[in-house]
Amino acid sequence: MRLSALFRRLPRRWPAVLTAAALPLLTGALWQLDGPQSTFGAENSPLGPVAQRQLTLFYYTLVVTTVLFVLVGAVLAYATIKFKARNADDEHAEPPEQGHGNPFVELGLTIGSIICLVIIAVPTLSAIWYTYDVPGADTPAKLEEMVKAGKAYEITATGYQWWFKFQYPSERAFATATADARTGKRPEAEFVTANELVIPVGKPVHINLRTDDVIHSFWVPKLAGKVDMIPNRANHLWLQADVPGYYYGQCAEYCGDSHSVMKFRVIALEQKDFDTWLAKQKEPARAAAPIAPANTAPRAAAPLALRNPDDGKKSVPLAGTGDPVVEFKKWQDRQAPAAEDAAKLALISAGRRLFNDNKCSACHTVRGQEGVGVTAPDLTHIGSRSTIAAGLLENDEAHLHDWLADPDHWKPANKMFHGIGRTGKISMPGYIKPDDNGDPMMKDGQPVRNISLSDADVAALTAYLQSLK
């Protein structure tokens, strides 16, 4: 039977055939694709022009491919039912007349396929051009003009195993709280933060994407699609938040042992609130208490046990409640320092000493205090962040206790625990002590600790880090 004859008979059975072909779509629609990292489902989602354009393109493509799926599925279902061999005679019967070689059918299918591709290609190319960079800033010179005019903002995001560094190229932070006696000005440093990217609402943000080691991918589903961070290759994207809020992001390209827990947050603030936050963040670290004298801080004899505040789970899918509204309010509440009594101030002072004695300052920066390192997250205002461990754990005393006690429990192979090395050898020790060859020192089958913390140590370090707001 020719295809033309098949199509003539199709209308009599089209309701049943179309229902069977569309059944997967009908059942799939019953699932609610929602969540803090979903572009679908939630009301007012997505919440930025880039994500909205990408979602519109997805739906546009989905409609075209759904029509094709239903039509092809209907023809296939009809042919399967109509020409099914129901007995031995059918199995040996002469095949029905074929439509192969019919120029009308073959040219029609070819032209129809080309038309469908063009229908999809036009909005796809338009979306690619739109999402490539900030509208009107398709060259570095134009972007610089827009940034200087306050019409756009520029940030550099760098991926590390396994955290994100955010640099604000147009902003300078103060390195000390007091002015230089000779110049009368306060020394300045690069303004850097980590794992929480704060941006102004309603302003396009050009983000330079870099990596310090392997390929990572920058993804904030509610604001923009994923773009890779590639070694030795400059890349970028742009996004814009239309409303203030708390947005979830993460690395979307496998990058090693702890890839699945390499997360970050984007906090969007009204311009006035953003300026207030920025001015506060530019200040050096809050010195709630002076550093304790040397050799007075508590010392540990052995590593302490984990408390596992999350019912014994080794990892947490999302720090906090997962509700952006709740987490945004919690983030806002964290910005103001809490009042500290004499006992807490003593802990903070001891924590500063422990931070210095354990050489945490070799990797971390705490502007205005002991830290000057650049190979780990900037901790200048870590107390004001809602998460620790690159968005994995909530920034509270219980989770910070566990993170400091044994970071490898939460993020396997992380540099804080295993140390930093480029050729498989430890060049900058972490919690594990290296031997003379740069390999982990072992004893009784276990690595020897370079850093061991007691409950008293953790309490002091936690108080110190929580005070940095």
Order of helices and strands: HHHHHHEEEEEEEEEEHHHEEHHHEEH
Query: How many angstroms separate the termini?
Result: 78 Å
Question: What is the oligomer described by this structure?
Answer: single chain
Low-confidence stretches: none
Number of domains: 3
Strand order, biggest sheet?
A: 3-2-1-5-8
Spatial shape:
elongated
Number of helices: 13
Number of DSSP-assigned strands: 14
Main pleated sheet: 5 strands, mixed
Radius of gyration: 29 Å
Write down the overall mean pLDDT. Answer: 85
Question: What is the beta-strand fraction?
Answer: 15-25%
Task: Describe the structure concisely.
This protein has helices at 3-9, 14-28, 49-82, 88-91, 103-132, 140-148, 271-282, 324-334, 342-357, 397-405, 407-410, 415-418, 455-467; strands at 153-160, 163-174, 188-194, 196-200, 205-211, 216-220, 224-229, 235-239, 245-251, 263-269, 387-388, 393-394, 442-443, 446-447. It has 469 residues and is α+β, with helices and mostly antiparallel strands.
